[in-house]
Amino acid sequence: MAQAQEFEKVLSSSDTSVAAFDEHKSAVKRIQHFLHSTPAAVPLIVLLLAIIVFGITIGGRFFSSYTLTLILQQIAIVGILGAAQTLVILTAGIDLSIGVIMVISAVIMGNCAVSYGLPSVLAVAIGLAAGAACGLLNGVLVAYMKLPPFIVTLGTWNIVMATNFIYSANETIRDTDVDTQAPLLHLFALSFKVGTAVLTLGVIATVVLVLILWYVLNHTAWGRHVYAVGDDQEAAKLSGIQTKKVLMTVYTLAGLIAAFAAWVSIGRNGSISPSAAVTDYNLQAITATVIGGISLFGGRGSILGTLFGAMIVGVVSMGLNMLGADPQWKVLLTGVLIIGAVAIDQWIRKVSA
Amino acid sequence: MTQEPILTARGLVKRYGRVTALDNADFDLYPGEILAVIGDNGAGKSSLIKAISGAAVPDEGEIRLEGKPVAFRSPMEAREAGIETVYQNLALSPALSIADNMFLGREIRKPGFLGDWLRMLDRPAMEKRARDKLTELGLMTIQNISQAVETLSGGQRQGVAVARAAAFGSRVVIMDEPTAALGVKESRRVLELILDVKKRGLPIVLISHNMPHVFEVADRIHIHRLGRRLCVIDPKQYTMSDAVAFMTGAKVPPEAALAA
């Protein structure tokens, strides 16, 4: 035992109990603590509530497995893009360019397979590589040039979008051409029925992708590093994490996943259009991520939440559709959900204070 | 001192723009000792520590570990060489668990297919080692090893950071202001931790402004002034006011101390 200073001698008679917590926590506190340790719980609860509310108001028509699986088909692409966005937002960044990366990858896949007559497998590989290359560019600019992610991806959004229009001359590749020359590009449109439920390969791919990413984020060193970098980049660096490498791989992987979303989107849309509604996809992916409880400040949230977030948007828009409501109600409700999600995030964070 | 120093630095220079933070600084650490580094604000203590812990690369000068020249370009390289640092801001990730934090950057993977191919972390093994280490250092008042670091008190966080350094440091442990943010009782625990680590034969570099703490645990005191080592004194032969007088320039240290 160290030789105590004079004023510290009284310590030997001090209270030895350590940090005794008041166990009679209020129910609200306990809920707050549960939500803090289980970040995907909030979106899951909201999702179930939404299903129940629309189920009651609309009735059996909504509750049918056909309708519910149709919702899954509608959110597959947003779910995949949301997964890519989640990776980036977990590092306290944002990727505004994933929507256009998806479109240019689709155009490249289509052109390689249909216009240049390359084997479909090669066309898909080139498309995926192009997406990853765009992501790599973002990653290098963010990690090594130390530019803010918002500005970098705003820039690459414009650059990639313009490149896309110049390269494609804004020509759409028709559904029938894809079908006859490169059926592999329509792979994810394959569907099979289980009773009245209709599942496409695209839906299954979305769920499998999210599960794989969940595993990687929670059970590998790289995944823990993604969280650590988003939490406190300086601390992560000092504890020996190669933060630049982590950032670069995250943006590259986001680009690759966006290109994968391109492949799935060709299956869903049939034709390949260079002027697909990019902004919509972008914002929907960010919305799914935020509603899914991924903190925009980085380091917090579960990727499962993003999938639930995408489903919430899908359920709400399908439900309102079936009720015959003005489509603007969906937009309004999405806004409410976003603000609500961020407010809940702030409240949960206070558990540590 | 007949022993060879374990860590030495000669003629370190570090400039930040027009500011010269280190001006031909020297440094010696002997095996098994606690060396305190004291100095006024802006004397260059932090720059010196950053240079030997790999957090900053000096512009000039040479660092030797056990006689061999080393040039760390990142904290990771210093850690691989066996130099662990407890930073003033602790360098913990608040949202990650205690075990995850202790193994950040050097995780243990499961053996066999799961670890080699699926890169799966061996959580049970990491949690067991983290728990063992915390118990060894008498810090097991923490109930749950998988709780997030942000739910711990300041003293407990300090304990986790010290335990991490003690668990992995094989040659040198550096502690930057370990008691600055702590209360009387917690400071005492950390000082005991420091002596515990010393007992295991690890030399410690202690940076502190707290003179009573420095004079209590240090074997030698390195006084830094104006970017260089002014002198090294034996805390048994000088008083705290002597040390303060040297480091502020109020008094010129004797020749014998200058040579040390």
Automatic annotation (TrEMBL), chain A:
It comes from Mesorhizobium qingshengii. Its main location: membrane. The chain crosses the membrane at residues 40-63, 75-108, 120-143, 150-167, 187-217, 246-266, 304-323, 329-348. Pfam families: BPD_transp_2. This is Mannose ABC transporter membrane protein /fructose ABC transporter membrane protein /ribose ABC transporter membrane protein. It comes from the Bacteria. Keywords: Cell membrane, Membrane, Transmembrane, Transmembrane helix. It is found in: Cell membrane. One of its GO terms (cellular component) is plasma membrane. The keyword Transmembrane applies. One of its GO terms (molecular function) is transmembrane transporter activity. It is a multi-pass membrane protein.
From TrEMBL, chain B:
CDD domains: ABC_Carb_Monos_I. One of its GO terms (molecular function) is ATP hydrolysis activity. InterPro entries: AAA+_ATPase (IPR003593), ABC_carbohydrate_import_ATPase (IPR050107), ABC_transporter-like_ATP-bd (IPR003439), P-loop_NTPase (IPR027417). Keywords: ATP-binding, Nucleotide-binding. Signal peptide: none annotated. Residues 7-251 form the ABC transporter domain. It comes from the Bacteria. The keyword Transferase does not apply. This is Mannose ABC transporter ATP-binding protein /fructose ABC transporter ATP-binding protein /ribose ABC transporter ATP-binding protein.
